[in-house]
Amino acid sequence: MAEAIRFLLGEELREVAIDDPTVTVLNYLRGRERRTGSKEGCAEGDCGACTVALGEVENGRLVYRAVNSCIQFLPTLHGKQLLTVEDLAGPEGKLHPVQRAMVDCHGSQCGFCTPGFVMSLFVMFHDGAPIDRARIDDALAGNLCRCTGYGPIIAAAERMRSAGTADRFSRNEKRIVDALEAMRSPAPTHAGERGYYAPRHVDELAELLLCHPDACILAGGTDVGLWVTKQHRRLDPVVYIGAVEELQRFDIREREIEIGAGVTYSRLFPIIAAEYPNFGEVLRRLGSAQIRNCGTMVGNIANGSPIGDSPPPLIALGARLVLRRGKDRREIPLEAFFIAYGKQDRRPGEFVESLLLPRRDPAWNLHCYKISKRFDQDITACLGAFNLKLAKGKVADIRICFGGMAATPKRALACEAALRGRPWIRETIIAGQAALARDYEPISDMRASRSYRARVAGNLLLKFWHETTEPHLETRVVGPRRAHG
Amino acid sequence: MADRRQGGVRHAIPHDSAAKHVSGRAIYIDDIPAPPGLLHLFAGKADRAHALIRRLDLARVREAPGVVAALTAADVPGVNDISPVGANDDPLFAEGEVQFHGQVLFVVAADSLDAARAAAGLAAVEYEDLPAILTIEQALAAKSFVLEPHVMRRGDVQAALAAAPHRLKGRIRMGGQDHFYLEGQVSLAIPQEDGDVLIHCSTQHPSEVQHGSARVLGRPDNAVTVEVRRMGGGFGGKETQAAQWAAIAALAAVKTGRAAKFRLERDDDMVMTGKRHAFLIDYDVGFDGSGRVLGIAFEQAAGCGYSADLSGPIADRAMFHADNGYYLENVTILSHRCKTHTASNTAFRGFGGPQGMVGIERVMDAIACHLGQDPLEVRKANLYGKDERNVTPYYQTVEDNILPEIFAGLEVSSGYAERRAAIRAYNAASPILKKGLALTPVKFGISFTNTPLNQAGALLHVYADGSVHLNHGGTEMGQGLFIKVAQVVAEELQVDLDRIKITATTTGKVPNTSATAASSGSDLNGMAAQAAAREIKRRLAAFASERYGVAPAEVQFLAGCVRVGGEEIAFPDLVKQAYLARVSLSATGFYATPKIHYDRDKAAGRPFYYFAYGAAVSEVLVDSLTGEYRVTRVDILHDVGRSLNPAIDLGQIEGGFIQGMGWLTSEELYWDEAGRLKTHAPSTYKIPTCGDRPEDFRIAIMPGNENREPTIFRSKAVGEPPLMLAISVFAALSDAIASTADYRLLPNLDAPATPERVLRAIEELCLRAVEPAARARAGE
Fold first, then answer.
1. C-alpha to C-alpha distance for B336 and A267, rounded to whole angstroms
2. What number is the ipTM of this complex?
3. pLDDT of residue B80
4. CB contact, 8 Å: B173 with chain A?
């Protein structure tokens, strides 16, 4: 069994033994590599000062993604290229076009967030898509700057490709791809004092979890990472599912889409956004580019948060989960998975293998609303998902699910009952609002008060009604149907 | 001249560290290579808001693996206090009594941070709980104060109020603000011989860190040297509040003989350090039918936290700016400095000024709603005059008022009138989304109101090869001070900017400095550096005059060279000759701001050398069903005198505006009933992101306006004033909400205007609008 991982740091091969599988990439860089360009601003994947680029080969091409090195565990780098801010300038210190644009546009003041911005911009520089303000906002939502007010950084993003889209890395792409292909080897396993397993196939994973029913299952690490950096928990063993081939797939079938447990939000986004634009808008605002590049929808479900953004739309759509234990599989409605706060229907040794999302049915209409203090990269105070089937002006069927209103994502069954079969008119909505007040007993916390949550939930039902009955009305300040200044 | 010389004043030169920032080569304190044997420090914190410490047993902490020392108040050889104002109320380590949740009880020094953190959890602490005061309202009720109240008054307010045709009373609350500098508090202390210590500290105030640490160590100031090359942001949060961590690191270094680093993790930083003061402001205003204020009484209450820190001057500055840009003929301003069992609040960009201004801007909106006027007309009716109506409540004459010109320019360039009409029409037709618009001014007083602080020193060396070493007492926190001062020296010496080495601030080179604060950095240090450069020039000119036998007037410093009579000598050549002739090529420079004086007992004088002005127009789009909103357009016209560096100044204006917008919108501090701060990381505390920047953002520097006072190249301070331009966002939100009741009632909107507060204000307004009796009961 190999106990060292291999990856490229810049273009240099690194072989690093796994002794602590939860050492973060940032601590490795700043400590062992003495690369102090990447900064720790929060150690929870929210500020982006630690942003690095990970290169992976996909369909023969090198693809870069921005990730938060502060919550990424080092062993997950196996087989990838890691680029930090120190890698960008040329051999004689000639600044990369991204760096040049940042200097020319006065994009740094105190400079502490700057390496992270540079790396997020570097990834955008490489992705080939046209650059506009909306894309810049999305690409940089995970990078906080306290000095500039962002204007000069936006200007740098708009300017960085002015001298072309090629750089040292695109010119060397073949060499890097070859090096990464040559490194392709089974992910290492470490069964020593701190266990780390990175199985390649789902059957191996199933076996492994039978042996280690208490293992920490690690996917993107956007939540698990914080257990280490914030709660200082000692995770042992860690089972990483990012190398399990079968779990990285999604399968678009006639009636449903099967989403593997290892599929990241970034890969899923275009599919969901095409199928359900409102759900896509929720995902656009979920976390940040860095978080979506690592985080998985199934992880968001499996960890059972009452304020995860995926479950309410998924439950409103009638999504189902495939759970697996050893060779046994069972399929349950997603809503049945959430039993109570911190308690899910997952047995020892069992894991979520995939998520089954129904395809769009033209008879149904899904609208979603995420309420938070800040639009981008904020944890939800209240998220409402409404899925309506109208027939002859009446509610043929409706499924409503809220996050942030109870100890789990929870359907509004009383409200649904009050609406079902009724004419889709304001009087029905008023009755529905009264029923909705019986569905939930929200709490007060730092995100919102109980009364605001209750009030806004009722208002969202009203807004949903407006949107379904007055298609041209401006009803939102972000996303679809927003008014323009 | 400027054609050949690179980098004098007025040029939009990038930040001196820009290339290092973007390539990860700029060194912050945590990036300094670890000295051998480096110890890592971690604080053991109180988990009570207010309690007596009955027992603190660190036996298990000291036995834990990797632990080298565990320090408490008993280990302090000098004074266990770090108060910046001599109040003796800021213990380094809590002793006997805990006064806020997160206060330092002890500190563990260990071989690794993990070991220190793990050991800190092993302490046995027993408390006897005491009642905790957590809010301003509770403090007022309990008469719990850190300092005595203070009053400013002029005229006969009661008579004016009684005689006024209209009178309104109201109240506004505004929350505090975490600095959220991206680089948290950090100090690295390295022991020296004789028990001395060198501290690398991320601080805006190296001298205070030096003096405070020496006092803790029981040593003279000369035993401690404090150095800082740059901070990853400061914003006031590293003015006084860097000292505690530095002093503890110094103590650990001196005690153990090993280097010690104290870097606060983000959550600890937010829990343990003070913030912008929350304020509660009551007003009672009388006015005429045009909206002009005839008499006004303000009662301001500042939430100071558990100790005085800088709360005195901060609360004073809230009083100094209770007028903002408006003439208040009959006025009283009463200020309470409330003690709460929370972290001690401190300096934050604006230093009380923003809170004072929010108070009067609220009054302007209240008057406008009451009279059914456009708030802009009410604001214009109250602006300071030029030659009359130009004396502040503290009896300083406003000599440099340009707000009328700024208003006129901005009203036209922003299309205020047309947009006001368009917004009224939009709101009438849009049932769910509502737009709001507001123009608000800023008049900000420049100088430390504690007059002795308005001094600065610089040290300039010219080496024999003609290269220049520049040092001064100001610190670089990203604001571009170092490049501005270097531009001043380049301009004076007429040399290229790259000939000048910018160097770390250190108490070993320039002593007894004031904090880099109060927007004063370039005003003070620029003048001091200019004085040093002029002294060098004087000596070189005297030497050249004598050597070449020409009159002193015939020695001229031109771009890159010195003309002596008919001959041009390259700057390095002349320097070399002067060195060989045994001329001193090192000079200090010093500056003390003229004209200022203030008698605090009488609340009268000229505390400010001059004022900086600006105004902004903000437009917002509000969702009346959820309270969510966006800032869709902002127009700014701001006064920086004659800019030393327009790129740096624009960066301050834009960055300050967004930071102010965050304070008034999404940045909410939330404590639970036990006094625990629950918003202690970016996951829960929301500063603006890229997408929050207004889609349409137009910033202009007021053209052709040089400082009337002979400041450094007639520039003006720019660090703080733009933050307060963001009050226009708050006023625009209020305007959008007011539209739901036809602009006749002032919404009850407090800051930060989170979606929750906006929705609550809308619903409360709707209730009031349909219930005129309620208005009568409210005394309107």
1. 56
2. 0.97
3. 98
4. no
